[in-house]
Design brief:
Length: 499
């Protein structure tokens, strides 16, 4: 086995030592960032929830219900005892235990049976009728009430649903150590000596930030070897999860009612700043000043969008998400225009807009009056496209307003991080992509014995965390752009952090 490289950790505290590829490590193949697993022939890992939880169940129950020190002591006793009996051809998964003769089985479980708490925990297995080796479990362990058994099963499976949790890692360590110590499946070389010592003395030796991921990847390799393509395992897994589903209830959480946030102060502040913006708009004559109109127009449109975000409960709704996306786009465009300070670009932005007005107008007037949507006023479109010259002279640009896309404009303006932070998440809601549907209309059944399946929410819900804080930060960024283009402009939002 190759010694794993020291992997760079993630900055996020929850995910810092997760076995995940960094986005920069994914290869771009014809516009698709391809998973490293998909470039390895037969490289698909065996599913932890589908396959490992049913087969590692007895150990999972101990890890989820006993203090950790006791669990690790008992796990050690199991693989060490199996090694003294030279059980090199058998394993200790739920499906393999029947292959170990009863005397050896009692011997490797002896420490567990001597521990009353551990014995009670494994007695919960007698609740399930799908398990192999019923005779061993029935005769060696006790019978608990259904409620007691379900409680133990739920606690055990719950903490191991995440294949990288502490409890899952401990269980994976047990099965890995069984392969190494009892089955002697690892060839000892000087290259792996340090790693092996870390495994033997787990969790007391080595840097756990690298030891834990190493345990998980080594266990996954053995699991793939032992489980893949095994029809007996597949059938057992199906039976296990079906019995759990049939005999335990769905646990659907009640929707959380969002705390009422008082947006009144923020609305007053927004209105005050808006008035300052309008007062800052200086006119010496009646001429059209394309840069000024685009800058102020963008800022004032952003204010209108912002006031809608903080109206009613929009900041908790899809409306708030979509409006925030609009703010993001306004900011990137204005940042780009400010960065370039190219007179022709302000002109292009404007001309593109009136070209669109003309295009919509010309298409619309080919139709009967009653075929037009109620919200559209074609006379307005005619006026907008005619304001600064004869409409017949205006071109219609069918592409993007400056021949680049929003992402490229963000990169050129030095705000790619801003684009990455917001755009894909927000756009998923506008486009009705799966992530948005999942978050909005489905919830998760919290019974871990149901594999965290999804169920429809009983009623349309106010569905997201409030977007008002990010919206207000973007408003302040926009006000800074106003300051850069028409200095000085000092007012900024200050209330949003206090809501
Ligand atoms: Zn359920």
């Amino acid at each position: 086995m190759k010694k794993p490289k020291n992997k760079k950790q993630f900055k996020n505290s929850t995910f810092k030592d997760y076995n995940l590829s960094h986005i920069s490590d994914l290869k771009n193949q014809s516009g698709k960032l391809v998973s490293g697993w998909n470039s390895i022939p037969n490289g698909k890992p065996v599913s932890w929830i589908e396959n490992a939880i049913p087969n590692y169940l007895w150990a999972i129950l101990l890890a989820g219900n006993l203090p950790r020190e006791n669990t690790l002591h008992l796990f050690r006793s199991v693989f060490n005892r199996a090694a003294t009996r030279h059980l090199t051809d058998s394993s200790i998964t739920m499906l393999d235990l029947p292959n170990i003769n009863p005397d050896d089985k009692l011997y490797i479980f002896e420490e567990i049976l001597k521990d009353p708490a551990a014995k009670r925990i494994l007695s919960a297995l007698n609740f399930l009728s799908c398990l192999p080796d019923k005779v061993f479990w029935n005769t060696t362990f006790d019978t608990l009430s259904d409620d007691e058994s379900i409680d133990i099963l739920i606690k055990g499976v719950y903490v191991s649903l995440d294949h990288q949790s502490q409890e899952s890692t401990d269980v994976r360590w047990l099965f890995l150590m069984y392969e190494i110590i009892a089955k002697q499946k690892m060839i000892l070389t000087s290259e792996v000596a340090d790693m092996l010592q870390n495994f033997l003395e787990y969790p007391n030796k080595g840097d756990m930030r690298s030891v834990r991921p190493m345990i998980r990847s080594a266990e996954m390799a053995f699991r793939a070897m032992n489980f893949e393509g095994n029809e007996k395992i597949r059938q057992f897994n199906i039976a296990f999860w079906k019995e759990c589903f049939d005999r335990t209830p769905c646990l659907v959480p009640k929707p959380i009612i969002q705390n009422k946030i008082n947006f009144q102060d923020l609305a007053v502040e927004a209105t005050d700043i808006y008035l300052n913006v309008v007062n800052n708009f200086k006119m010496n004559n009646s001429d059209f000043d394309v840069k000024r109109e685009v800058v102020y127009g963008s800022i004032m449109y952003a204010f209108t969008v912002y006031l809608e975000i903080i109206s009613y409960k929009n900041s908790f709704r899809i409306a708030g998400i979509n409006l925030l996306r609009t703010l993001v786009e306004i900011y990137i465009n204005l940042k780009y225009l400010t960065h370039k300070q190219d007179a022709t670009l302000w002109e292009k932005f404007y001309k593109y807009g009136i070209g669109k007005c003309k295009q919509i107008l010309l298409k619309s007037i080919e139709k009967e009056d009653n075929e037009l949507p109620e919200y559209m006023n074609v006379e307005n479109l005619y006026n907008y496209a005619s304001e600064n010259g004869w409409i017949e002279m205006q071109d219609i640009d069918l592409g993007d307003w400056c021949k680049t896309n929003l992402r490229d404009r963000a990169i050129e303006s030095g705000i790619k991080d801003f684009y990455d932070k917001h755009y894909d998440f927000l756009s998923a809601f506008s486009h009705g992509q799966w992530g948005a549907l999942r978050q909005t209309v489905f919830t998760t059944c919290m019974n871990p014995l149901h594999k965290l399946h999804i169920v429809p929410k009983p009623a349309p819900a106010i569905c997201v965390e409030s977007v008002h804080i990010e919206a207000t930060k973007i408003m302040n960024l926009l006000l800074e752009l106003l300051n850069q283009n028409y200095s000085p402009f000092k007012p900024r939002f200050k209330k949003h952090d206090q809501t």
